[in-house]
Known about the structure:
Helix content is about 45%, strand content about 20%. By secondary structure, the protein is of the alpha/beta class. A 5-stranded mixed β-sheet has the order 2-1-3-4-5, with helices on both faces. The longest helix has 27 residues, at about 140-165.
Amino acid sequence: MSLNSEKLQELIRSLRDQKLTVGFAESCTGGALSAFLTEQPGISDIFLGSVVSYSNEAKEDLLGVRRDTLMQEGAVSEAVARQMAHGVRRQLKTDWSVAITGIAGPSGGTTTKPVGTVCIAIAGPAFEDSRRLLFSGDRKAIQHASVDYSVNWLCEALDASLKSRQ
């Protein structure tokens, strides 16, 4: 995977310097964010694990996503991404979490949620936010863009959190 390894090193350094842990809930990326992080040796001090929840049932059973949210908003929504982020953070007892849910294609898109629609949420101490994004390209490009975006955004969130505590 040829993602921004400089940003990944910044993320790892930030988590270690702040003595924080992280976990992921991944759907459309199928564990790619976890694989990207675990390519680094000795990562177990900051990365506690991930849940790859591809089906709605897995999102409900493993992450505590509410069925009514899935039915009303759809699996690819900011509301579901936020519940996934909170669920994995609770299950793995991490300080921070990232959740990714989207439509990587080539099928599955609709007029309101075209292929490339990805919702990402981050949860941490006194922090919660989600974003709906639209990436382009083939399935692999959309997955890579989702992972790259998540790493960059988590770096920003950790930096902002650190500055707010100083």
